[in-house]
Design goal:
Number of strands: 17
Distance between the termini: 62 Å
Shape: globular
Structural class: alpha+beta
């Protein structure tokens, strides 16, 4: 009971810091607040006028799905995913069911946040005993020149869900305080990718920007960490994030290792500004010389920096199923469906550029957040046919098997009655050999609503 009272007091303290008077709340009313329902559904708390001071919940108006886009998905995905599409469709049409991950920032003290997450039923996606050895590729000893880090003052533009920062417990003590004027330095924290997830669609509040402080965590679809894990970045390597905005995967890379250089490329000015401010919100200023933002056209990047990088991530522009399904109008939906047909050519250009930018023996990871086979397997196959020195690597045993408890992977989890799964060209294709050779796909399913996320790892032969 004492722990419950402590949490209630923390909530009250947080309210006071943003100018709210302490309302008359009970622990029951606090627990009933679903403060992270989905990207299109924001939670707004208000104190009802009157003697009861009762807190009531109000939701923003939900956007309806675009029937034109949904019809297209039904036609394509029922063929490509078989019976998995019906359940994936139900998830995509129910944002209230979507789950979210909380990735901790190792450059900011997170002890209080960890305790709060655990008290609310969150658990780690990657136990630290497994994450470093199995997925993150381990890390070497940091050199003395890399061990002095100055704390920073970020600006807040990181992509995130509706801002429910007024629900955040009071964490303005030593665990979150960073004085902009202070020259105090500390040893670079050991690489440790920590992401907390909840078994139900419970949402943790987003964190507001506070001058002179680094954010402690980043909210994300946990499936978006898989391409970073597949990249296996190690200390001292040169890494390129070819399509970096809004910056979540770049942040994840910096949690996994201490690269000698992380180049975050984004040609679009608006998105590049967004990316830069996201990095500034989470990374200390002393890393500015090692984490840089570039503005090159990703399609020609490889030609200007041939064989420069050890690892390259291509999180390619794609027809994002989650957002495109909620197109604002039929006209926008029609425009997006036309754009969808042009994306594979762009994606193939980006992947070829990445394979040129990576050194012989280096690795490229290609990823999207769509279920579309034409933007996933077919793009990889096309580029492999054009690049004889590129070799795909099997991710099934490395990622899909150990993480199948949390994510639903296709096509191995699909039941097609022994039949083959057609590609967009409708040519027959062996399921097991194809997924192992070209990549793995996370399909949203009830209870495992992460994704969509496709990832493929390709090594350039020496």
């Amino acid at each position: 009971m004492s722990e419950l009272k402590l949490l209630i007091n923390q909530f009250y303290s947080a309210w006071r810091t943003i100018g709210f008077k302490r309302p008359k709340l009970t622990w029951t009313s606090l627990c009933s607040c679903n403060c992270h329902a989905g990207p299109e559904v924001g939670l707004k708390l208000r104190v009802k006028k009157g003697s009861s001071n009762k807190v009531i919940k109000g939701r923003k108006k939900e956007r309806a799905s675009c029937q034109q886009v949904l019809d297209h998905f039904d036609q394509q995905y029922s063929q490509e995913l078989g019976h998995l599409w019906a359940s994936a469709r139900a998830v995509l049409l129910d944002p209230h069911s979507w789950q979210y991950g909380v990735m901790l920032n190792r450059f900011s003290a997170v002890t209080d946040i960890t305790q709060i997450l655990r008290s609310q039923g969150f658990s780690t996606l990657l136990p630290q005993t497994d994450a470093s050895s199995l997925l993150c590729g381990g890390s070497s000893t940091v050199s003395n020149s890399e061990q002095q880090v100055e704390k920073d003052s970020p600006h807040d533009t990181s992509k995130g869900p509706p801002n429910d920062s007024h629900l955040l417990p009071n964490i303005t003590s030593h665990a979150f305080s960073q004085d902009l004027q202070s020259e105090t330095s500390y040893s670079l924290p050991h690489p440790s990718l920590q992401c907390y997830i909840h078994p139900y669609p419970h949402r943790f509040p987003s964190q507001a920007h506070r001058p002179g402080q680094l954010k402690q965590y980043y909210l994300l679809n946990a499936a978006s960490l898989l391409p970073v894990l597949a990249l296996q970045v190690r200390d001292g390597e040169k890494v390129l994030d070819l399509c970096s905005a809004p910056g979540g995967k770049a942040l994840a890379i910096m949690q996994c290792a201490n690269p000698a250089l992380l180049c975050c490329n984004e040609p679009d000015p608006h998105r590049r500004n967004w990316l830069a401010k996201t990095l500034e919100s989470f990374l200390p200023r002393s890393l500015n010389s090692r984490v840089i933002v570039s503005a090159q056209d990703g399609r020609s990047f490889g030609q200007t920096e041939v064989g420069t990088y050890d690892k390259v991530l291509v999180d390619a522009p794609c027809s994002n199923d989650r957002s495109w399904l909620y197109s604002c109008s039929s006209q926008q939906g029609e425009h997006r469906l036309k754009e969808r047909t042009r994306l594979p050519a762009l994606q193939a250009q980006l992947l070829r550029s990445a394979l040129t930018a990576v050194r012989p023996g280096g690795v490229v990871v290609y990823s999207t957040c769509t279920l579309s086979s034409s933007e996933n397997y077919s793009v990889v196959e096309t580029v492999l046919n054009d690049c004889p020195d590129a070799e795909p690597e099997d991710l099934w045993e490395e990622i899909a098997v150990p993480l199948s408890k949390y994510f639903a992977f296709s096509p191995a989890h699909a039941d097609h009655g022994g039949e083959t799964v057609p590609k967009p060209s409708l040519q027959p294709l062996n399921v097991s050999s194809y997924h192992q050779r070209h990549g793995i796909l996370v399909v949203p399913q009830p209870g495992k609503t992460w994704g969509p996320m496709f990832l493929s790892r390709i090594r350039r032969r020496k």
